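Q: Given only this backbone (386 positions), what sequence would you predict?
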């Protein structure tokens, strides 16, 4: 029996009864840092029955519950990413600290911005790439790293940024089905655009600056000359391919499903997700030539009341052993050099951190993109719908 129902049988005073109920009703809300929604969780009838005067005790109850909150909410990419994070980061962190980890699906820059503007925090930690990091800094959406809570003195200096902690590198690569192209499939973005030589259903990631960079590479722009970006030229090249794109993926698990089930014959997808399919004997080939490589960063939204616990978790994710454990489950490139010494060479070769993979890939100029990204996204959305 719950505490407040048990109290009814003990015939406690209404104020005490109300306090017990509030403690149970707001526990989950407070852990999310959204105690302002407290009153909406209780029925008008119960409030009247218990006595409106009892509300006077609610603020102290809320403060007490918040001080005891021991949960960090992580914005999750879902699928094999989440199951791998659970094994490598979530469960060991909880065992070590007693702080529980819960996930909230649907990673979105727009959601980060909305949380900060409304001060309604659904999650406390998100892992975003360099471009989104730069934009978030520009728009004032991030907490500065709490060096004490994050124990930054324990981390390699290159991992610690003013508003985030670098977690790993990842690639977005050309991937094709080998059964569709038994004599060899596309090996470059120029090949991906060549619908006559390589016919078949295509799919791209619905991320503007990624696709625009691919378009310029397909149009003959060298990787080291992508920036400053000729946006008009990139959109013209994208328009050539648009009729041949079957769908645009938005979630990592969706990209895996599309190529696994043969709904598309070639795709731009995250390298680790492709290797996960290869490990499951799905006949796909991963191409590193022209891959987009970027670094992800652990970020906490500005004003988050649960920031201290969030930075504690970020410290754990940045440590060598957990990073190695994660990369052995899903081959992202660990940012902590100590993690690489704990991994097999075979696994390292599958990550963006392997030198041969880095040599044939490219990275974005986040400083150039960040102040222009809102306009690029707006134009991209209009382009997709016309």
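A: Predicted residues:
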């Amino acid at each position: 029996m719950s505490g407040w129902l048990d109290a009814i049988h003990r015939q406690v005073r209404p104020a005490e009864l109300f306090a017990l109920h509030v403690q149970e009703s707001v526990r989950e809300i407070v852990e999310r840092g959204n105690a302002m929604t407290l009153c909406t969780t209780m029925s008008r009838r119960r409030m009247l029955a218990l006595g409106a005067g009892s509300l006077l005790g609610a603020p102290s109850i809320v403060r007490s519950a918040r001080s005891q909150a021991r949960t960090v909410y992580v914005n999750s990419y879902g699928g094999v990413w989440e199951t791998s994070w659970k094994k490598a980061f979530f469960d060991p962190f909880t065992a070590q600290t007693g702080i529980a980890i819960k996930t909230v699906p649907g990673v979105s820059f727009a959601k980060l911005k909305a949380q900060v503007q409304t001060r309604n925090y659904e999650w406390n930690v998100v892992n975003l790439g360099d471009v989104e990091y730069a934009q978030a800094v520009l728009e004032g959406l991030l907490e500065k790293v709490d060096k004490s809570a994050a124990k930054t003195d324990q981390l390699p200096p290159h991992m610690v940024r003013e508003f985030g902690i670098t977690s790993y590198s990842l690639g977005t690569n050309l991937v094709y089905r080998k059964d569709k192209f038994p004599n060899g499939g596309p090996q470059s973005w120029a090949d991906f655009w060549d619908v006559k030589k390589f016919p078949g259903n295509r799919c791209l990631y619905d991320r503007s600056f990624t696709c625009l960079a691919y378009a310029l590479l397909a149009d003959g722009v060298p990787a080291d000359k992508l920036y400053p970006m000729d946006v008009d030229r990139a959109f013209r090249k994208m328009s050539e391919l648009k009729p041949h794109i079957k769908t645009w993926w938005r979630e990592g698990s969706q990209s895996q499903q599309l190529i696994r089930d043969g709904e598309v014959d070639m795709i731009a997808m995250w390298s680790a997700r492709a290797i996960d399919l290869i490990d499951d004997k799905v006949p796909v080939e991963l191409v590193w030539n022209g891959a987009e490589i970027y670094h992800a960063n652990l970020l906490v939204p500005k004003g988050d009341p649960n920031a201290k616990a969030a930075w504690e978790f970020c410290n754990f994710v940045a440590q060598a052993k957990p990073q190695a454990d994660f990369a052995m489950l899903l081959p992202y490139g660990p940012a902590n050099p100590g993690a690489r010494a704990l991994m097999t060479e075979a696994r390292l070769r599958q990550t963006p951190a392997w030198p041969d993979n880095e040599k044939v890939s490219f990275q974005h100029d986040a400083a150039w993109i960040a102040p222009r990204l809102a306009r690029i996204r707006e134009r991209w959305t209009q382009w997709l719908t016309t």
